[in-house]
Every structure is written in structure tokens, then in C-alpha cells.
Amino acid sequence: MTGFSGTGFSGTGFSGRRVGAMVLRHLYILKGSWPRLIEMAYWPIVNMVVWGFTSRFFQGHSDWVARASGVLIGAVILWDVMFRGNLGVSLSFIEEMWSRNLGHLSVSPLRPHELVASMVAMSVIRTVIGVLPAALLAIPLYHFSIFSLGLPLLTFWLNLMVTGWAIGLGVSALVLRFGLGAESLAWVLVFAVAPVAGIYYPVAVLPHWLQAVAWALPPAYVFEGMRAVMFGQGLRLDLLLGAAGLNLAYLLATILVFLRTLHVARQRGLLLNVGE
User: 238 to each of 78, 122, 224, 228, how far by Cα in Å?
Assistant: First the structure.
């Protein structure tokens, strides 16, 4: 049986050509819709501009911000990496539901794990399109380059991307289970993480019971690590390993949940009925 057979791990291999074909399909969608391309870069730029001016104000009124110029701008840019990583995965899947294409994919040679790989690949592309213009614009506007973080930036970027993938796969499973009426979770669920992720402030400012929740989430480790680098403390390996370990656990769990949900939906014939 070809198509979405089993849970996605019992297939006869992995085809880069099939993954590439799915990525090419979504690239054609983006190519044919310039408003989508503008929207992907618009919100990161607006956030960066707003927080850039806020950071300038705080530099003259806050010793904490003054000691690490650009700490808020860097936090905004990295937050958008996670946000766009989530949307890149979830929207790639939801677009298949909008176009009622899941039924066709289920009888194609495409395997479930290849579908996941194509969603992740599109997430990387969407994130670069969305975040890179804001990061570059911050250089002439505020004389801050997040690229000055050097090698630590790569570890921060990768960890936040993986967190976004995990959230996006979880959202995709929920949308597949409950229908397109749950598609707003693609935007809502990631913001539930924001208050305890320590994006703009240290985890230490949270109540003690909420700090335990924060340290159970990979972004808290990443943003604490970012501030450590910007305050001259260097790359903290304990925070890096903490984020990587949690990301690995969450990503594997959400992949299994997504593949299982897809398998059940196929068995019950739900892939042709994916409306509200």
C-alpha cells in the first residue's frame, strides 16, 4: 500500500524527490501570492521597529538595558524565529486542508514522514523570508546586528526553530482531529508560551511556581542564554544542553502524535472531510 500507510515509519525508505516536490508545491503557492510574502516579513519588521524604539528609550532610563544595547531587539528577532517556525509547519499543513488535498496525498506515493519533512523544510524557508529582512533592517535603524552574536546565534536559532516545529506539529494534529474550526490555534497556542518563555525579562522575575513551568520549556533556556552572551558571560553550555534535550523530547513526541492522528484519520476516512 502506498500513500499514508502505517504510522510513517514502516515505509520502504525516504525519498528526497517526493519531499522536494511538496516543497516546490508550496513555493509555487508563495510565488503566486505576493501578499503572503509581504505578510511574512511585515509583522517581524513592525515588531522590530516598535521594540527598537522602546529599547532606545529604555537605554536612557534602565541600567539593565543600557549594559546590553539591543537586548530587547535581539529578543524580538529570536521570538519571531520560533513564531515563524511554528507557522511554517502548521500553515503548510493547513493549506493542504484548505485546498482539500489531503485525500489526494493519501493515495500518492508520499509517506507521512516525508510530509513532515516537507513541512519542516517549508518552515525554514518561511522563517528566513520573514525574519531576515527585520534582522537586516535593525542594522541601519538601531546600529544593532544580531549576527554579532556569532556562533551562539546559530544554536539559538536552531533551538527556537525546533521548538516552533514541535508546536506546529502539535497544532496540525489538533486541526486534523477537530477540523478547520481549530485553525486559529496556529496563532494562539504559541502565544501561550510567551509569558513564561522569558523573552523580554529573566525567568527569575516570575513567581516561583511559574518558574518551574518556564524551565520545562526550551525557549526559557534559549533567551536566558541569549542574555548571558549579550551581557558578556559567554555561551552557557548548561542552558544550551537543557534546551536541546527538551526540544528533542517534545519534537519526537509531537511527530508521533501527528503521525498517529494522520493514520487514524486515514483509517476512518476523514481525510476527504476536513471542513469546519
Answer: 19, 30, 11, 12
pTM: 0.84
What CA–CA distance (Å, rounded) separates 159 from 170? 17
- Give 206's DSSP letter: S
Containing 257, the helix (H) or strand (E) segment is: helix 237-267
Produce one character per residue of 140-174: b if its CB has 16 or more CB atoms within 10 Å, e if not. Answer: ebbebebeebeebbebbbbbbbbbbbbbbbbbbbb
Q: Where are the domains of the chain?
A: 16-267
The answer to whether the CB of 169 falls within 8 A of the CB of 257 is: yes
**d(Cα 141, Cα 57) in Å, to the nearest integer?**
14
CB 161 within 8 A of CB 219: no
Q: 144-174, pLDDT tens digit by residue? A: 899 988 889 999 999 999 999 999 999 999 9
Instruction: Supply 145's cell numbers.
Output: 546586528
